[in-house]
Design a protein that fits this description.
Layout: H1 24-40, E1 44-45, E2 51-53, H2 54-60, H3 66-69, E3 73-75, E4 81-84, H4 89-98, E5 108-117, E6 129-139, H5 144-160, E7 166-172, H6 179-192, H7 199-207, H8 221-224, H9 236-251, E8 257-258, E9 270-278, E10 286-292, H10 296-299, E11 306-313, H11 314-320, H12 323-327, E12 335-339, H13 342-357, E13 362-364, H14 371-380, E14 385-389, H15 391-396, E15 398-403, E16 409-413, H16 414-426
Parallel strand pairs: 1-5, 7-8, 12-13, 12-14
Antiparallel strand pairs: 2-4, 3-4, 5-6, 6-11, 7-9, 9-10, 10-11, 14-15, 15-16
The protein binds adenosine monophosphate.
């Protein structure tokens, strides 16, 4: 048998898998609530290719980032280097430029849902193909009100999903005016303790000292916790921006912790960065990551553009869903129709057709099973109701509807049947 590639998942109906983040019903909850949040806050959907020129990510994401090192890159037959996208912000900004969206007045607010690819070591909550849902706000303004509103939307979304056991961490990593001096100071401080740090940190010390703060190695943490932070070195405009952002979060009653060593894994961030961490998730506990990336558009050859956005992994959001919301989402058929005899079979098929036309999720036995076996299937599929068609039903046009949980039975004509079954549909 040929199995799936390591680090990938099949997302299946829940009855075929015990893995909580591989259950399609949970994915549907996460996606539907996201679309509803985006609708309310005025975001439009965009779909970009999963394959892009490697150069886009080299320029956009940076050549010495984790994300870049983990890319699936190959040479196409005509010699062009292409990569499976490791994230979508660079692609969305490319599309923004390529389609002249910057010519529109006002902000362009986009969202995407789709797979990403990174060749990481697979573990719980970390895959080589995973799905992200993300938003980007692009335009000429870097008003902190944009950031606060995006976080307000995220807050609304989490409430819809009843996800409560999370922490929001925020930081400002400065801009091109104040960051260079900080990085110099950081480099000096790291240099003094280099012997205590892991090999990865040592390399980052040479290439990109800011990223040392991102290291998750246990043994590096005591050193990292003593490294200088940028907070005291922010220039006045960066400080004012951060203060305003925090005031707007306070106004909205959104709780957060300032994490002065929170930097993000990609090169293009500036000023505001944030992460939402799930307390129940274990090692891979960052659910959402985001920040401001003014200047990314220029890095990939477009006009000066300001940007702010976030992305979250669908798998990790699914793992954070409370059990109650997951169980009520299972999509069982509303009614299963079984029958006795040939004439009843034809009648049942026609009845199922009429019920479906009226909006009911109806299943009918197609395998010619004996009544008892057919009802066992209905039970197995957790149908809410079952209904048996025999000669009496054909003649009277009345049906005995059986509630599969309580065992209660009701005799109903077709229009009553439709009313009851549609009500049952509605309260799912
Ligand atoms: P990033 O693009 O690295 O900032 O990641 C944003 C979010 O995407 C993370 O907080 C995770 O929820 C998710 N994510 C990133 N990498 C993976 C992965 N390899 N597997 C599953 N989810 C991931």
């Amino acid at each position: 048998m040929i199995s799936k590639v390591r680090g990938t998942q099949d997302i299946l109906p829940a009855r075929f898998t015990d893995k909580p983040d591989a259950q399609i019903e949970s994915w549907a909850i996460v996606e539907q609530a996201a679309r509803e949040a985006f609708r309310r806050y005025g975001f439009e959907e965009i779909r970009t290719p999963i394959i892009e020129r490697t150069e886009l990510f080299e320029r956009g994401v940076g050549t010495d980032t984790d994300v870049n090192k983990e890319m699936y890159t190959f040479e196409d037959r005509d010699g062009e280097r292409v990569s499976l996208r490791p994230e979508s912000t660079a692609s969305v900004v490319r599309a923004y430029i390529e389609h002249g969206m910057f010519n529109q007045p006002g902000l362009v607010k986009l969202y995407y849902i789709g797979p990403q690819f990174r060749r990481e070591r697979p573990q719980k909550g970390r895959y080589r193909q995973f799905a992200q849902i993300g938003v980007e706000v692009l335009g000429q303004s870097d008003n902190p009100a944009i950031e606060a509103e995006v976080l307000e939307m995220l807050d609304w979304y989490l409430k819809q999903l009843q996800i409560t056991d999370t922490e929001l961490y925020i930081n400002s990593i400065g801009d091109e005016n104040c960051r260079p001096a900080y990085i110099e100071q950081l480099r000096l401080a790291i240099g003094e303790r280099l012997g205590e740090l892991c090999g990865n940190c040592k390399q980052r010390y040479e290439t990109n000292p800011l990223r040392v703060l991102d290291c998750k190695e246990e043994r590096c943490q005591p050193v990292l916790n003593q490294l200088p932070t940028i907070t005291e070195m922010l220039c006045d405009p960066c400080r004012a921006h951060f203060d305003e952002f925090r005031a707007l979060l306070d106004e909205r009653g959104i709780a957060y912790t300032v994490a002065p060593r929170l930097v993000r894994g990609l090169d293009y961030y500036k000023r505001t960065t944030f992460e939402l961490v799930g307390n129940q998730l274990g090692a891979q506990n960052t659910i959402v990551g985001g920040g401001r990336y003014d200047g990314l558009a220029e890095m990939i050859g477009g006009p000066a553009t300001k940007g702010f956005g976030f992305a979250f992994g669908v798998e990790r959001m699914v793992l954070s869903l409370p059990e109650a919301i997951v169980t009520t989402s299972r999509r069982a058929p509303t009614v299963y129709i079984a029958y006795i005899g040939d004439q009843a079979r034809r009648h049942s098929l026609a009845l199922a057709r009429r019920l479906r036309a009226a909006g009911v999720a109806a299943l009918v036995d197609l395998e010619g099973r004996k009544l008892k076996k057919a009802l066992a299937v209905a039970n197995h599929l957790a149908a809410r109701y079952s209904l048996i068609v025999g000669d009496d039903e054909i003649q009277s046009g009345n049906y005995m509807l059986r509630n599969m949980t309580s065992g209660e039975q009701q005799r109903l004509d077709e229009s009553q049947l439709i009313t009851i079954l549609n009500d049952a549909n509605a309260d799912r």
